[in-house]
């Protein structure tokens, strides 16, 4: 099983490098967003005696923030999305490397890996590399939750006639964060983007295991201080597909059980922020490992 552990460690190392690179780009984008709002929106707002005027016309101008975000989407954010898209498409190759390492039919594995259409359709990437409107990455790039937070902050500041210094300081904290607090875009991606990396891996992984004809897997990913009981008791153990589909939705340690109907064990694993992987193995490998548990 050394091949499985080596693959997991390599995947985690690669993901950490991707996240570090994208987080850095997002922090730069946060700085650009703050500068654009200060340069393009603030001068259009009515100000008197160093404070924002609480007028209807001022509130109407808050919609200028939409233009700022749209311009950001065409510039900084679009480059980040394309970088992330390339990493998502590359998951197929990483999955193939695992099945190669375990000695499965190389010709069949290579044929599966050649087709990236599954991942493209999942995340919304056209064959020309462009983001498809209303696809996952397109919606991610719009950053709607961040847009609304910024707009609501500006509206509230206008309604309360916030002084300019306080307004700009608060805007900076909201967008760029502070000590121990992520900025708006970094926090948004942490909540919505990075879980998709593992989920896309598992969807693509299902394609491999179905084509190869596998029905058993090892739950792998190790234990860290934030590991949940659901994952701790499964880590390093082997399961059948049928067992997971039947029993895991009713596991008392599964988080967010009130939404059990939407839980997909073979994709969601321990649910959001889960760092574990389903490593599909042959029935022979399953029986050998099961005998040792």
Give the tags.
293 residues, three-stranded antiparallel beta sheet, 15 helices, two-stranded antiparallel ribbon, mainly alpha, 2 domains, 63% helix, 5 strands
Tell me the number of strands. 5
- Largest sheet entry: 3 strands, antiparallel
Strand content: 5-15%
Strand order across the largest sheet: 4-3-5
Helix content: 55-70%
Distance N terminus to C terminus? 14 Å
SS summary, helix count: 15
**Structural class by helix and strand composition:** mainly alpha
Mean pLDDT: 93
Poorly predicted runs are none
Structure description:
This protein is mainly alpha-helical. α1 packs antiparallel against α9 (164-176). The strands form two sheets. A three-stranded antiparallel beta sheet has the order 4-3-5. A two-stranded antiparallel sheet has the order 1-2. The chain folds into two domains: 2-192, no CATH class; 214-290, no CATH class. The chain is 63% helix and 6% strand. The protein has helices at 2-41, 56-60, 64-89, 91-101, 106-114, 117-123, 136-142, 144-159, 164-176, 184-192, 194-212, 229-232, 241-247, 265-268, 283-290; strands at residues 47-48, 51-52, 216-220, 238-240, 277-281. It has 15 helices and five strands. The model has no long low-confidence stretch (mean pLDDT 93).
């Amino acid at each position: 099983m050394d091949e499985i552990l080596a693959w997991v460690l390599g995947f985690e190392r690669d993901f950490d490098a991707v996240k570090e690179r994208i987080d850095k780009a997002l922090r730069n984008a946060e700085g650009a967003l703050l500068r654009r709002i200060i340069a393009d929106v603030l001068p259009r707002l009515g100000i008197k005696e160093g404070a924002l005027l609480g007028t209807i016309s001022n509130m109407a101008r808050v919609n200028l923030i939409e233009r700022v975000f749209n311009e950001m989407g065409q510039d900084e954010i679009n480059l980040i999305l394309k970088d992330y898209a390339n990493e998502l498409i590359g998951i197929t190759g990483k999955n193939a490397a695992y099945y190669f390492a375990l000695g499965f039919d190389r010709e069949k594995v290579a044929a599966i890996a050649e087709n990236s259409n599954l991942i493209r359709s999942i995340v919304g990437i056209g064959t020309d590399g462009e983001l498809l409107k209303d696809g996952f990455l397109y919606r991610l790039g719009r950053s709607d939750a961040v847009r609304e937070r910024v707009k609501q902050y500006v509206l509230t500041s206008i309604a309360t006639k916030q002084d300019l210094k306080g307004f700009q300081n608060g805007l900076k904290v909201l967008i760029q964060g502070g000590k121990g607090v992520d900025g708006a875009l970094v926090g948004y991606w942490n909540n919505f983007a990075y879980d998709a990396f593992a989920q896309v891996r598992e969807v693509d992984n299902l394609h491999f295991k179905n084509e190869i004809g596998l029905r058993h897997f090892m739950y792998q990913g190790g234990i860290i201080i934030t590991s949940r009981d659901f994952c701790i008791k499964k880590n390093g153990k082997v399961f059948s597909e049928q067992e997971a589909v039947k029993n895991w939705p009713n596991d008392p340690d599964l988080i967010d059980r009130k939404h059990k109907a939407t839980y997909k064990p073979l994709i969601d694993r321990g649910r959001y922020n889960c760092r574990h992987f389903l490593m599909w193995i042959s029935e022979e490998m399953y029986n050998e490992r099961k005998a040792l548990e």
